[in-house]
Amino acid sequence: MNSKSKNMTSNTMPNINVNADPTNTSTTIEFLLSTLVSKMGLKVNQALAFLSNSNVLLIHVIIKGLKGSYKPVISWYEELLLHCKFMVSLFESETEGLTSAIRVLDIVKTGLYSKSTEIANLTMRLMGKIATEMNDIGMSGISWDWLITNNGLQILLKAIEQNKELINENLVSIFFQFARNNLIELFTHSIPSILNKSYIELIIKILEYLKDYKSFRDELVRQGVIVYWINIGCNKGDIVNDDINQRSIALSFLLELWVCFPYVVEGSTEYPDMIMHVLQRAARDKIIGLQIVSIIVLFKLLSNFVVEKSPYALPIYKSLTFALVENYHRAALRELILYNFKEIFNYCASIPISILLDPLFKQIVSSEDTLSTLDLAEFEFFNCIVQHPKLNAGNGVKLLDILAKFYIHVQVFCGCTYRAFFTASNRFKSTKDFYDFVGQLIQVTY
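RESULT FIELD:
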């Protein structure tokens, strides 16, 4: 807006009926004045003052409230939302439409500074709506330039850093509507240059809101953003000397990317191999915290892939089996892995459990110290697998043998063996494997 518009006085005031529908106005300044008078209860001269001197008074009211109350500000933002399409149409019809658009966006963004979360959310809704309407009339370049050159993005990101509740569908809408033709620049340069270390955390949170936003997802794929994210996730997750927290976040990031964009990840054998390599390395890292994160991520992927019948379920299943056998002497990791396998086996009747049981039972019986380290986690797991339909007689009898040895040699928890032992016995009592086992057990005990 030019200096004449910025310093309007009552003598230059257009003839406005303060009770009139704001859509009866013919310029942006008339529209703003009309809504301020009707929704904030201002006199005409007061409304003019709000829009003078770089909108200082209006900005103060948006941030602090009007006489300590945010209700008038909320009503005003709701009015702008209601008539947003009309307001943007004024940008198109005015000679100084570019200036008007920038001024309105500069005023509206002030709500991001507000102490009221409701106003901040209204601000984000309105910003997204303005950008949507500007896109529809061919002004998308103006909204993008404003976001990048008028500190719009910096203010937005600062607001969400201070108030995590603002990371929601409104934020996702702003990103898409302001940058729909510039997503690769937004996500590979503009946002990372401002957020740095917290960048991946933000993307993880907005991925949740992309599930129902097909047009946004499609553009992210088309413009190459997802491939960029896969690469930085792998790089950050595999930097051995990097901050452990950042590596853990990167592993979770890879999980979310694979679940949200499986058709991109699995569209090339390169990306699944890259992600699996990073997760497997982290699962064998010397830092137990990173191992735990990686194992949890692998189990979440396995749970998802088992349901989807993905071909990548098997290599992940084998990786977790190896992790269990390799870390069986470490109680915390053993308990974590057994618990998660139990959860998967409980709801998936088709998973071939012998892939896990063969090396697991071999590990248990090969060490003299293993029996003495068994605890409740093992027995809960045993109680699960004895009921699994894929448990065969061979492994069922191996389990009986382990339970019997535990009962004989470690009597502290012998009561825990009853349920699994009798369930397995009843299930396989008619098999040759069971009869051979009973014969051997009689010889040992008598």
